[in-house]
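Anyone up for a design puzzle?
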């Protein structure tokens, strides 16, 4: 840094030129009492969120139109719903899962997941009744209920519990392994199929992965590595 008047080289920290006594002025250092311009506004704008309402309206009109066309065609050709019941039921299930959450600004998953599973249970009940099967209570209902409990528990733990993501993930993977065994068990009860045709392999795979994440949560060095690499 040099004096602006006589050009003498100045040492750091001096307030005046030792030769001409001209006050030292550093352009990179703001004056006392001066506001520092950071380039950012003092008030930050609210986070912009795109509204899902137009998409919800458009999909609702599309689903209602499709259901009306299916109903009209079936009544015209058969005088009854016939296959149209399955199509309308599938449309309703799609609407509950994919379209209904768009009507809300922030759709809480812990509420909509049970609603989705309830819609799936009603649809499978309709299929079971129409096909004359007796597998809803012995197979579809317990499987859908177990899936609802497992996924809702995962969402609530991730949303409301701070930390312990590796333990939550490990427990969830163990739960998936047990869930596959449960599916095959209800298959065995409902349809007389042999046990452990495929679920044992998934249990071993998901179980090994779940145990790995549980152990990783207990070992600090491995936990830090996974947290940095995968942002747990």
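Challenge accepted. My sequence:
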């Amino acid at each position: 840094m040099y004096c602006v008047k006589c050009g003498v080289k100045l040492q750091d920290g001096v307030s005046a030129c030792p030769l001409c006594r001209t006050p030292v002025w550093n352009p990179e250092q703001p004056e006392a009492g001066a506001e520092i311009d950071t380039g950012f506004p003092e008030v930050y704008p609210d986070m912009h969120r795109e509204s899902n309402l137009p998409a919800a309206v458009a999909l609702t009109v599309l689903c209602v139109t499709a259901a009306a066309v299916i109903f009209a065609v079936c009544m015209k050709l058969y005088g009854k719903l016939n296959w149209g019941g399955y199509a309308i039921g599938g449309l309703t299930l799609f609407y509950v899962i994919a379209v209904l959450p768009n009507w809300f600004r922030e759709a809480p998953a812990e509420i909509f997941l049970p609603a989705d599973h309830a819609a799936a249970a009603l649809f499978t009940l309709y299929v079971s009744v129409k096909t004359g099967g007796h597998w809803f209570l012995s197979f579809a209902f317990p499987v859908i209920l177990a899936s609802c409990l497992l996924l809702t528990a995962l969402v609530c733990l991730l949303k409301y519990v701070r930390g312990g993501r590796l333990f939550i993930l490990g427990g969830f993977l163990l739960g998936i392994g047990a869930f596959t065994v449960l599916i095959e068990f209800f298959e065995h009860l409902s349809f007389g199929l042999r046990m452990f045709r495929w679920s044992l392999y998934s249990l071993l795979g998901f179980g090994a992965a779940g145990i790995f994440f549980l152990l990783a949560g207990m070992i600090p060095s491995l936990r830090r590595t996974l947290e940095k690499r995968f942002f747990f």
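A detail worth pointing out: The chain has a mean pLDDT of 87.
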